[in-house]
């Protein structure tokens, strides 16, 4: 397998470090708009590691990406950029006859008149409407293959296959007890993206009703996360799993709740109340005269860059899928989850826990595609493919998953 | 009396409207850096009102202000600008032999090493250290003569003169139930100034200990405001009364607590936690490239301009002085207060309630100076002068004050 990895940010860089320990691929081209980032990711792997090449690439230029796929004879494009670049990369892979893997799907647009009741354009819609073309080309577009979406969808399929006869509800629940030393307030992830995720109308799926949206921060609950993380306040957030799972699995209800915690939820509510979450510019005075700036950019600029906080952070992050239903006529409830400890990921890979947890899953998926254990054509979510090989290989990567039986939510 | 009014913002404009109904002065020159603001204030009064003249003046230019005092033969300078201009205006009046009235005193600077324990430069220090010169010139600098400070200090003196034998504590308590229709969150006053006030270390006075500072938002209490406003969460805020009252009155403790309410206090705490209260610039991208902006300016730019909200606002604002002590050997507790209803002030004067309440008090003071009921030389606070004539004249202006007997705090 020859891979074109587009994006050498935190997750892309962690992908190179995880992949470097595996033998399933022949070559990986590491491409970034900023060639220094790509070169730095490759240099970190050492001189003896010759399977990686750094190059410059503009992810918004589908033709340029296609040319790179051809030049380096890559059979799969691994997208590790931000969601704005999903479509050009997805199209470049299709045009070039390469497989495609991403970790976030094409963006949504709220319903024009009833944004908090009805879906407008949904996450991934622009990709699923091209599914026939991928089938016709006999190529696989594996979408939403990070940790959430990604591993969380694999868990859902595993629950449906092996743990339940009928499923009433599937709820992805994400929480952490990560703390950054030395700051009053320092989110361990981009506040810009978190605002975007949390203020988009959250989407919920119900059998019979289909997909619908709610107000931001709806259906607050306290979920008890395992391995000492403990109870964290969670709220509905727009996320790919809710759009992916019902396409392949039967469940009465599907939700995604993000364990932001009451402090962070309070901060986001305040930013929203004051209009500081807006991206449309406001005019303010500066030493250079009147300038127009996006309030959300200013909020991000006031906080430390989370990419540089890995070595000041401690704690664990937990991604998982809570399922409620029946098995052999009896009610059952399980939480399938994966925890990464930041001290472990920093020591082992020099990668922050949230970033590492996102990166390990697409590498596992690439290895399954390379071996043929995962194969198919069209636009598929992770729950469309057999879960056992994935979960076993993840454990082989040194990062096992767990199952908690019973109601703890 | 001939008055040079400097500043034709909200309060300055309301001063012209209140003064126009009184006959105690011969002429009032309305000066502003922006001549359109001065002209608009004068034009509002109508063609028959010939006692007002608009002019342009830079309040930071003491020589220019002195020249205007001379040109218009003014015997008093009424400062209605923001506190940054206190010193040049105060000096211009002294140099020109005019009396001086302001509504906020020269600014403080925190203690360099123990900002939340000890005072650095206190509010008004730069004015009080010039007191001898005012005495020598036989001119009066009446400082802190708005509503708070101002009327609140008159109440304190009235309580000391007529209601108590001994005073254990004087606490200024300011609260409102003003609501702006059509906004999620719209403060009825400048958020920039409110952040400044609330994040400066609050100052407290105790007999024997003197002045000292605390952490922001300290000593939170719920004070029950009269006339249906009801209970509002109040916290310590740096304010002039705490510096003024102990110079003339004997009290065991003096505090100022601002009834911001739990929602507003939560917003300010969040802004502080995120560093969005900062005035030092952060660098962000804009359409014009990288620019440096003050986060606090961006916060202010995201909110509606409170000056334009008067006609969308309803409710009342209450300023007052709570006093606890003994009279004739028995414990006593009173709250002396002044309430302005926004619908009334908008209808009667076209001025928002908070602005009108600030503006009426210096006009009453000017009338007392004109009549000779208030006279003196040096730098004096309102509590240095007899309170009865002031309180009676305020009632005559159609805006009576009240006394609540007993503990309701």
Automatic annotation (TrEMBL), chains A, B:
The keyword Lipoprotein does not apply. Residues 3-141 form the Saccharopine dehydrogenase NADP binding domain. Keywords: ATP-binding, Nucleotide-binding. This is ATP-binding protein. It comes from the Bacteria. One of its GO terms (molecular function) is ATP binding. It comes from Streptomyces spongiae. The keyword ATP-binding applies. InterPro entries: NAD(P)-bd_dom_sf, Sacchrp_dh-like_C, Sacchrp_dh_NADP-bd. Residues 146-398 form the Saccharopine dehydrogenase-like C-terminal domain.
